[in-house]
Each structure stands twice: as C-alpha cells, then as structure tokens.
Design brief:
Layout: H1 3-9, H2 23-34, E1 45-50, H3 53-62, E2 71-78, H4 94-111, E3 115-116, H5 124-131, E4 137-146, H6 164-167
Antiparallel strand pairs: 1-2, 2-4, 3-4
The chain binds flavin mononucleotide.
Length: 171
C-alpha cells in the first residue's frame, strides 16, 4: 500500500474487538511518535500508555470517547520543553508537536492493522487529575487504539472531504 492509499483508507474507529494489542505493535506505534518532527527538535511530547482496567475506567469517567479500546494513548507535551517562536507573539509549539506525534501514531497504527480515533473532547485538567499527570505536562489528545470490531465502519463525516479547489490556491 502506498502512503496515500493508507491515508485515504484510514478512518476513525469507534468500535473495537475485545482483543489485546501486542506489545511489539505498541512499541512500533511509540517509535513512530519518537521520530516525529518537532519545532527546533525540542521533542516535548510525552505519551502515557493506558492499558490497565483501573486506569481505563478512570479515563472513561472523564471522557466519553474511549470506546472501550484495549489501549489508550494519552498524548501530552511538557510545557517546559516546548519551543517558543519569538516572531509569533505568544506562540509555543507544544500543541503542534504533540499533534504531529499523534498523527504519526495514528497512521502507524493503521499500517499495523489497528484502528484508532483522535479524541479531544475532554477537559484536560480532569484527565490529568484522573491519571496523576503532573501540572507541567499538558494533555493534548487521547488516541484509543485496538483492532476494529467486525462491524466497525466509518462515520458519515469521514466521507465529507472538501475539494482542493476550495482549499488550495496557487500563487
Ligand atoms: C483534533 C481532533 C479532535 C477530534 N476529537 C474527536 C472526539 O473528541 N471524538 C470523536 O469521536 N472523534 C474526534 N475526532 C475525529 C474526527 O471527528 C474525524 O477525524 C473526522 O470526522 C474525519 O473522520 P475520519 O477520521 O473517519 O476520516 C477528532 C479529530 C481530530 C483531528
């Protein structure tokens, strides 16, 4: 499969099999995060791998979009490590860096035959408190990961792609 075929095939999986994800696959997904580009190579990302029943239950209490997935990556960044762009007032790169790392993980998961769903509908302070994440780390996204259920299918939004004629302009 070419990269573009993979990017088009991937969709947000919101229903998972009750089947654990092999550790070597988790390691490869984390490796994809590790090598992601970051501003000034500051590498502020921090990933919590939530696998235990106890922690998944705690997470589900503060976020309704964990979908019973066997593994949930909690994608954070270290606020003391993010790069500051002095040419863009107030801009720091942690959120962007975490998003790139999350994208790498999402696509690597798909390449390994695993589904995932990027989730940001939660209160980051509640997630941090539930998992004991320190104050200097910002929770950016959750990425539930697992084998897609046999009847999992893309939501209708997946098919609503705007045309590049609207989103691209040659200058
Ligand atoms: C930044 C971001 C936040 C998202 N938050 C949620 C979320 O909280 N819950 C959810 O079910 N999906 C969430 N999604 C998934 C999007 O709804 C989904 O990617 C979009 O509708 C396109 O569908 P597709 O991923 O199946 O192609 C999020 C995606 C992104 C990129």
């Amino acid at each position: 499969m070419t990269f573009l075929e993979l990017a088009k095939e991937r969709y947000s999986v919101r229903k998972y099999k009750d089947k654990p994800v092999e550790q070597d696959k988790i390691d490869m997904i984390l490796e994809a995060s590790r090598v992601a580009p970051t501003a000034c190579n500051k590498q502020p990302q921090k990933i919590y791998v939530v696998k235990s029943k106890e922690m998944k239950e705690k997470l589900a209490e503060v976020c309704r979009f964990t979908f019973g997935a066997p593994v949930i990556m909690v994608v954070c960044y270290d606020k003391n490590r993010e790069w500051q762009n002095d040419l863009m007032q107030g801009y720091k790169s942690g959120q962007t860096d975490a998003a790139i790392a999350c994208t790498h993980m999402m696509l690597e998961a798909w390449d390994l035959g695993l589904g995932s769903c990027w989730v940001e509908w939660f209160n980051p302070n509640e997630v941090a408190e539930a998992l004991g994440i320190p104050e200097y780390e910002q929770v950016q996204a959750l990425l539930p990961i697992g084998y897609a259920a046999d009847d999992a299918k893309p939501a209708s939004l997946h098919f609503k792609c705007r045309d590049n004629a609207e989103m691209v302009q040659e200058l």
